[in-house]
């Protein structure tokens, strides 16, 4: 069989690429070795958000109890939540399957390996099928990384996919890695009563963010009873007699009922034989791409697998570009524009565009204006007044917006537009900001006094 | 004493006008007969949002209980919430008082009456002071309207300010008027266990919105146990033997422990003698303004009192304009741009710009594109999948955005920018929409198929 376009991987990038290609009139096939929807739908963004949404009332009630406005008790049923999650994911997979069918996309179940610049072998239990393509889009994504001595064993040392199938909340959990996955899973299990210890090798939580963001997170999570170890290297993480045992390089040990290894992801390119199609990989297998997201003349690589930005919406955006480029509708090199990213939970982190550190490293003169959430009536209404919104300015234009605090992920769409359009302060006054909203904290940050940092 | 600028009324419009005038270098006085902050801070937006935020966990938990993911019980303490609210409002009044002081604004406590085109008398218990002004800004706002036979008596027939001081939730409440005030207070008391009956003379809830919005609200509130009467006229609402008794024009009666009269507001212009300064009023006392918000050569009227838009952020926006115009920095007539407005609660309404009905009445050809919240993963995560986002298009450009459902007020800032900039579908693709967010429902609506309505 021969296709104008074959897409490998049915995560958010691959799904989008296949649908866009079919809509553009290309004969299109999609190869997936596991479930439609990929990591995002089945083991990532969606199940974690389902769990966080389902339990959001917990910490909100807890805050009001401290303020004496409410009393009560609350027990979440993880087994029931798992059932609901599984039903929802199954329904979503069915829905996207029908969408693909309606668009005429042929779906092949199996593992893909290149045999040449226009040939792909798809192998499953029934055997191997050879497919020919004019253009191919690799969107195989990434998977939890494993480090020597810290390999998840599925017993007491778990990776994120394991954790998402637990039906009972462990009494305690050690989380290694304080990025989005570690922080979100920690927040969720904390709501179920699990005692959380988080360990991060870098000097702070959320280490890709500026330090002021991490300061608020650290204070808030300590207040919620987390134990936090930053700037400490882990030598090993093992199951010992039914307990997770973490050993730091300095010899100190921690134990917990379960542990989550949430440090790093690795590219899912093993066995793909991208070299056969003229592509190359770097590092642990990230596919090298040119300015137009091409791994070779006939292969694009989009999403996590090219190592640019490990976010579902980045993959989606790259997929749209790749198909337009493939169809000759786009000649310019790929540019993402300012990238939004959130860490979800009761205390959230939101960022669009660059950090102060990145701007300074690029030699820019940066000004920052800040508003504290304590001055915002909506933050007050939820009793969640820790945190801030800050705007980064370069030459009088917005170069980035970042925030930390309850509900700040809700600011991300407006912030993305503002940074993408490089707003000046004058632009902030070009709309009416509804009152009372958390958005007014963004308005206040954008109109506040600026300090050179 | 003589001032460049005197502002009457210390609500959001008057406060903003006084601060902007002082910052522009004008000698400025502010006259207020009650508390700094006006209705918005003391009896309106802010206390209702404090109550809604403090109890938001209630309906969220209720949804999860229905989904079997949580169990528990929850009791809110209204008396404790009132104490917290009073502390917060007092602190906010003190804070704005200090801001005014820091800016050099003289604050006069008393009732204002014009004596001439440049003279104002301020009367309080100590007597009357005459103040001279070059320019005056009237921002006296509005107050609950009273209709014959439906006058709040503070016993069982209450207006919104009465209701905001209750320390015990009544067993039942009849609410007359299904606009923002009635719907928000109903949601709040419903969370405390009050049985809600709402009565609206127009044919639907939220009658200023399109009917499809009201349909979702109606279904959702019925599901939550509300009794809803629309399209029925009320003859009287009275306290009878310690009970609120509502009589419809057709003779049917309803009774409840308390009732809230939330239908309509009237201008707070009685005693102002605007005629002495060359101004005139219309209707029940709304101050007539020209295209530059002027009631006369020396008097501007902004906010509720001019009857244009009864919203705090509209007053704020008009205040900024009036001071710029007064200082000669603005010559063009006032234009608000698309107005955002929200009804808050567990199920929210958000709108920016015009309704379908308004556009059609203006002879426009309107297309609508819609996305249902059930397709959004964040709506799914909260189990709140009823509702939709819709985009109104005129000649290929966004003319309005409206939404109904849990959390849709969070879309208001992005929606305001999109409508203000009259986005086309191409503009929707100019940013990366973060995944997973409720914002994606807005993106989906904006990129969905359009239907002529």
TrEMBL record, chains A, B:
Keyword set includes Heme: no
Domain Pyridine nucleotide-disulphide oxidoreductase dimerisation: 339-445
Keyword annotations of the record: Disulfide bond, FAD, Flavoprotein, NAD, Nucleotide-binding, Oxidoreductase, Redox-active center
Signal sequence, start to end: none
UniProt-annotated binding residues for FAD: 49, 140-142, 304
Ranges of residues in domain FAD/NAD(P)-binding: 3-319
Entry annotation: catalytic residues: 435 (proton acceptor)
Listed Gene3D superfamilies: 3.30.390.30, FAD/NAD(P)-binding domain (3.50.50.60)
Disulfide bond annotation, renumbered to this chain: 40-45
Single GO MF annotation: dihydrolipoyl dehydrogenase (NADH) activity
Biological processes annotated in GO: 2-oxoglutarate metabolic process
Protein name: 2-oxoglutarate dehydrogenase E3
Species in which this protein is naturally found: Desulfovibrio psychrotolerans
Gene transcribed to yield this protein: lpdA
């Amino acid at each position: 069989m021969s296709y104008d376009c074959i897409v490998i991987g049915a995560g958010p990038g691959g799904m989008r690429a296949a649908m866009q290609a079919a809509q553009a009139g290309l004969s299109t096939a999609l190869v997936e070795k596991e479930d439609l929807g990929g990591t995002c739908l089945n083991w990532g963004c969606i199940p974690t958000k389902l769990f966080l949404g389902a339990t959001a009332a917990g910490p909100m009630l807890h805050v009001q109890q401290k303020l004496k406005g409410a009393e009560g008790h609350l027990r979440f049923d993880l087994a029931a939540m798992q059932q609901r999650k599984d039903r929802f994911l199954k329904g979503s997979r069915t829905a996207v399957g029908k969408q693909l069918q309606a668009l005429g996309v042929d779906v092949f179940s199996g593992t893909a390996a290149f045999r040449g610049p226009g040939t792909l072998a798809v192998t499953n239990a029934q055997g191997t099928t050879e497919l020919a393509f004019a253009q191919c889009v690799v969107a195989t994504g990434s998977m939890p990384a494993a480090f020597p001595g810290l390999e998840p064993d599925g017993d007491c040392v778990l990776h994120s996919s394991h954790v998402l199938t637990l039906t009972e909340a462990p009494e305690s959990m050690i989380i290694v890695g304080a990025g989005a996955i570690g922080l979100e899973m920690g927040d969720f299990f904390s709501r179920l009563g699990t005692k959380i210890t988080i360990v991060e090798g870098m000097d702070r939580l959320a280490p890709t963010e500026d330090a002021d963001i991490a300061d608020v997170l650290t204070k808030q999570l300590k207040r919620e009873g987390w134990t936090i170890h930053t700037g400490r290297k882990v030598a090993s993480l093992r199951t010992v007699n039914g307990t997770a045992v973490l050993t730091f390089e300095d010899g100190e040990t921690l134990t917990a009922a379960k542990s989550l290894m949430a440090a790093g992801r690795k590219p899912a390119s093993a066995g793909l034989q991208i070299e056969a199609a003229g592509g190359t990989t770097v590092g642990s297998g990230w596919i090298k791409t040119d300015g137009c997201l091409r791994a070779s003349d006939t292969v694009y690589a989009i999403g996590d697998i090219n190592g640019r930005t490990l976010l579902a919406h980045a993959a989606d955006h790259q997929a749209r570009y790749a198909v337009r480029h493939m169809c000759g509708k786009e000649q310019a090199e790929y540019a993402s524009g300012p990238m939004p990213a959130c860490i979800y939970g009761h205390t959230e982190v939101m960022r669009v565009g660059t950090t102060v550190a990145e701007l300074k490293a690029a030699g820019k003169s940066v000004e920052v204006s800040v508003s504290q959430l304590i001055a915002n009536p909506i933050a007050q209404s939820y009793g969640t007044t820790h945190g801030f919104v800050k705007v980064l300015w370069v030459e009088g234009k917005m170069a980035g917006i970042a925030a930390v605090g309850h509900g700040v992920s809700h600011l991300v769409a407006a912030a993305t537009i503002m940074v993408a359009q490089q707003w000046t302060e004058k632009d902030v006054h070009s709309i009416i900001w509804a009152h009372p909203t958390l958005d007014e904290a963004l308005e206040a940050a954008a109109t506040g006094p600026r300090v050179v940092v």
